Amino acid sequence: MLRIHFNAPTRSKGVRCCPMNALRVLLSREQIASRVAEMGKQITADSSGESVILVGVLKGAAIFLSDLVRTMNVDSTFEFIAVASYGTPAPDNRRAWDSTGVVRLAKDVDQPLRGKNVVLVEDILDTGLTLTFLKRLLLGHEPKTLRVAVLLDKPSRRKLAISADYVGFTIPDEFVVGYGMDYAERYRNLPDICVLPEVSPS
Ligand code: IMP
How many Å separate Cα 45 from the centre of its chain? Predict the structure, then answer.
């Protein structure tokens, strides 16, 4: 038998997939749309009329970037990059880099970023390992400016001292899915951001 429980103090080692109707909504589609629009307005204001290249991190930031760029009132283009990780999965079935900290680039940008105003767009700032790696990588392109926009920030899980210039929501240490974010590639199509409950054998 499987038991599903929310807000578990420790993480389960069990499979975490569950039916969509068992998911708890953390942030509704209305809350997300409203906050993303505010972020787009802020990025527009900070861009002072200069064109911007958004660089989204596949796959989790794809939906966020798609919505964000349409709220921006400044000449914008976008690119996608992808990262992969080495090592074995973490005990709680999160991505491997959660435990190993080794991130590598799987897909680079398709155009030069030198002298451009770049906004790196990520779904979640968690331990900070991925964004630290990507910031260093993009700075190597010698952009004119580099800013970071994240939809979600989980500061309690940070391993490296890094922060984003734009944060949609600060959330507690919960595993979330939806609005582009997945567990084992599932749930990305959910329009709300939901907490994936811990599932443990009993
Ligand atoms: P970091 O390197 O630990 O900051 O991890 C960032 C990446 O881990 C994010 O881009 C996500 O892909 C993934 N991640 C972290 N927390 C979650 C979560 O709650 N749900 C889905 N993916 C997550």
Answer: 23
